[in-house]
Amino acid sequence: MSREWLRARQTKYVAYATTYILIILAVLVFANYLANRYNKSFDATANKQFTLSDQTAKAIHDLKQDVTIQYFDEPSHMQAGKDLLDRYANLSPKVHVQYIDAYKNPGLVKAANVTHTGTAIVELGSKQEEARSFDETGVTGALVRALKGGERTVCVVEGSGEHRVDDSSPEGLSDFQNSVQKDNYKVKSISLLQKAEVPSDCTVLVVAGPTGDYVQPEVDAIKKYVEAGGRALFMLDPPLKLGRKEISDNTSLDDLLAGWGITVDKDLLLDANPLSQLVGLDATVPLVTNYESQPIVSDLQGKATGFPLSRSLQIKNGDKTTVSRLFSTSNDSFATNNLSSAEIRIDPNKDKRGPFTLAAAATYNTGKPGAQGRFVVVGNSTWADNSFLRFNGNRNLMLNTMNWLSSDEDLISIRPKEPEDRRILLTRAQFLMLRSVSQFFLPLVVVLGGVMVWFRRR
What we know:
Elements: H1 2-7, H2 9-37, H3 54-61, E1 67-73, H4 78-91, E2 95-101, H5 106-111, E3 119-124, E4 127-130, H6 136-148, E5 152-158, H7 174-182, E6 185-191, E7 204-208, H8 216-227, E8 231-235, E9 241-242, E10 245-246, H9 251-259, E11 262-264, E12 268-271, H10 274-278, E13 287-288, E14 305-306, E15 313-315, E16 321-328, E17 333-336, E18 352-353, E19 357-364, E20 373-378, H11 394-405, H12 428-457
Parallel strand pairs: 1-2, 5-6, 5-7, 7-8, 8-20
Antiparallel strand pairs: 1-3, 3-4, 9-10, 11-15, 12-17, 13-14, 16-19, 17-18, 19-20
């Protein structure tokens, strides 16, 4: 009787089902054990939207002491904080995250001077910094401020037709200002005409595409600043003479740079690189995809940067300066000296063929330990204004330049990713076709298939 029971079909099915259930339970238990012991995740988004940037990873991996991040929020919203801050904790055992219920702990909220929920506070030793926004940019920014200490100020020169930081038009620098502020710099405008002296609190001086000539006292003030260990970014456009839009030669400023080893040529670069046409650019916008090994650009490999209406540079080391090329135009580029014609076109018989140096970085030996001057020269200013700063790698290049000039090389990297716009743009005809297929054709195919199956079975 017992053998017949063991051989029964129902008994076999029960045994099989029990075995399968036990195996599945064992797999689930083992998987949960691994999940609790090892916190791993996989980011399947196209631009790694949910992976912390290289800048954040560098800052955390170089930590010499423990950091505590306090997150204050209400319980129903706490998961949003964990989604971001747990990634920080997973990068290093030196990062400790505390999730604090703002309603149950009013004393801690008051002690941290927190005014609203969803706030993160970074503690490093005796230093406390509040994240200006609760995202990777804000939290990493607070960490950088705690690590570096002190304020860094970018001073933008005005008074000779330069791009302005308070200008939100395509030619303004309002996006530039917002970007460097998120990277923990203060930004202010200064005039060297009113007082020919660079303020002592300027970490980096920016000369952003002047259209008028600098007078000699202005140039002397810049020279004194850099040669005393100051840092400066020069963005100089070609001296075009196109009707109402004229850009002066700025001979005094050009002579200063030439004395430091960087000669700014009076030409206009035209680049017939086929890649430019693929991204909708014409020959007046040199497209750069290859970079030198200098720290400013070493992390930009694989990123494209664009420079509308540019001029070329010639570089050499000076008596006290060491000059490095950052990047050049392609082999398909030309330089024309015709700067007054409204019709811009390449003439292979007259124009000089490239590649040409577009940007260079240099150091100035002051003779004093720890007081090295630094400056960067770019033969174009439009690449950093509102019309072009968001183009591919331009923003990263600009922030990398600021970091190198302010001696924050350890922060040079690709910044946190902006949300990617992946909309599909359709013409009206394409939209009508898509709607017809999805609303009428596909349902009709399903209905006809059902009718045919019914008819065959009948």
